[in-house]
Amino acid sequence: MKERLESLGSEALAKIEQAADLKTLDAVRVAYLGRKGKLTAILRGLGQASPDERREIGQRANVLKEELGKRLDARKETLEAAAQQQQAQSEFVDLTLPGRCPRAGSMHVINQICDEIVDIFTQMGFQVAVGPDVETEYYNFDALNTPDDHPARDSHDTFFVKPGVVLRTQTSPVQMRVMEQTPPPVAVVVPGRVYRVDLDATHSPMFVQMEGLLVDKNITFADLKGTLMHFIYTFFGKNTQVRFRPHFFPFTEPSAEVDILWTARDRHTGEVKSKWLEILGCGMVHPEVFRYASYDYEAYSGYAFGLGIDRIAMVRHAISSITHLYENDLRFLEQF
Ligand code: DAH
Questions:
Q1: In a domain, 295, yes or no
Q2: Which atom of ligand 1 lies at the shortest distance from residue 169's CA?
Q3: Would residue 136 count as lying in a domain?
Q4: Which of 77, 136, 189, 257 is the most buried (most CB within 10 A)?
């Protein structure tokens, strides 16, 4: 009986030390000290032992019971501490990590320039109009006094969608769409994309123009000039040198192209150079266009102009190739 008690004791102590987690440890406790446990069974069986044995074994069993209890508690504490530490490690939040910055978008440089130009004209009383990118040949050419065999069509390499339907080569067709909807007087600007079969450093198959149209009584070329000069001085600065050059457009007569003298420091050589840059076409609305619009061309006169928004953006920011504007390279776009 005594030996059984001793071996049971060392067996139990070994199991306590080996218990790797709280659950196993509790199973050990139940196996030895529980109601049906091995030590409990010995204590219960003492009734049948002799009085001497009962005293000796009883004492020894009680000491063992107490010791097992202590070791169980100690082991439990150790395992609990380990479990807690593990949990703390797995739930660790590193408060020193830098936050994640959301990437902010920004307006495309073309839209920035376009808005700035539209603002200058709306402050003078112009309204903003728009028209479709897919346009009929009638609005893009015929109604603008550019019939089929007109040589002016040669300068527009046109994308045809189907016979009679094109990607508009200019924002000018919106002039006619506006006049058909509105009796005079009108004053509109029309920003929009236009398309031509063309591709090099200064030409892109898609680019952006802004049309202007003003029709009222007694409008002269002086009004056109005054309006455009106000725009140029506001946008490019008061000291900008401007040149009106006679030109031809089928829908205006007389017509002109406007150049500005642009002075820039060469990025590579540092040399300061000036050159004339064409930024827009303009003129007095051709009577034939008024006839298409059913406007009374005896009572009314008007002017029109078309700005190259890309061209102006390239001048403003000294951009060497128009393709940069449409390649969507963030390294380029994020500079603006
Ligand atoms: N539509 C012309 C072009 O794309 C530009 C232009 C010239 C527009 C004269 C006009 C204008 O309204 O009057 O080349």
A1: yes
A2: 4
A3: yes
A4: 189
Final residue in a domain of this structure, among 90, 122, 151: 90
Residues 176 and 283 grouped into a single domain: yes
pLDDT confidence band for 165 (50 / 70 / 90): very high
Say if 95 falls within a structural domain: no
Q: pTM of the predicted model, to two decimals? A: 0.71
Q: What is the domain range of residue 178?
A: 109-333
| Domain-located, residue 236 | yes
- In a 13 Å sphere around the CA of 325, the CA atoms on its Cβ side amount to 27
Token digits of residue 168: 């508009």
Check pocket membership of 305 for ligand 1, CB cut-off 6 A.
yes
Which helix (H) or strand (E) covers residue 195, if one does? Answer: strand 186-195
Do 229 and 200 have their domain in common?
A: yes
**Ligand 1: does its nearest atom lie under 6 Å from the Cβ of 146?**
no
Question: What distance in Å separates the CA atoms of residue 330 and residue 310, rounded to the nearest whole number?
Answer: 18
The Å distance, Cα 283 to ligand 1 centre, comes to: 8
CA of 190 to the centre of ligand 1 (A): 12
Q: Whose CA is nearest to atom 7 of ligand 1?
A: 281
**Protein residue with its CA nearest to atom 8 in ligand 1:** 306
The Cα–Cα gap between 209 and 171 comes to: 6
* pLDDT tier at 272, thresholds 50, 70, 90: confident
- For residue 280, pLDDT over 80 is answered with yes
Tens-place pLDDT, residues 173-206: 999 999 999 999 999 999 999 999 988 887 889 9
For residues 325 and 204, the answer to whether their CB atoms sit within 8 Å is: yes
In a shared domain, residues 37 and 76: yes
Compute, in angstroms, the gap from residue 282 CA to the centroid of ligand 1: 6
Verify that 132 and 85 share a domain, yes or no: no
Give distance in angstroms: CA of 31 to centre of ligand 1: 99
Same domain flag for 46 and 172 = no
